[in-house]
Please model this.
Amino acid sequence: MPMTKTEKETMIAEIGRMLDDNAIVYLTNYSGLTVGQANELRNRFRAADVSFKVYKNTLVRIAMEGRPAYSPLLDYLKGPTAIAFGGEPSAPARVIRDFLKDESAERPEVKAVYIDGAFYGEGSLDALASLKSKDELLGDVVGLLLAPVSNVVAAAQAPARNLAGAIREIADRAA
Model:
């Protein structure tokens, strides 16, 4: 049953909100997935805090045309297209990569990706999946910041340990 004009306007507004609220958009080709595989993929995306939806390309195009930042993606709105929104920049890529490996599947395949102003085309799945998450990057930064402090503390404690060890050894010899 065809969508009414009101339903289309509502859907375009929903897509627009998703685009405005998420700096991460993955366009994928999902054709050829079985119903079971599609459900498994959706569950994996949900677990990674990523929204995965199928919209009519025409409605997505209309929503994107009002947002110039998404113009590089317009050429990829052909054929069966599902969109992954949100999460960490690498989260959708990791979900797709792991799904392809676990299911020995060929789809979904990444058509194009928009991450906070940067555009990535086909063949970027492995590079995107290898990006560190925000938490991993914060851990690295904290580790780098704490490393000099722990080195200073260790260096300051070393003479005290050496002195205490020397005194203990002299006391043991005298006894």
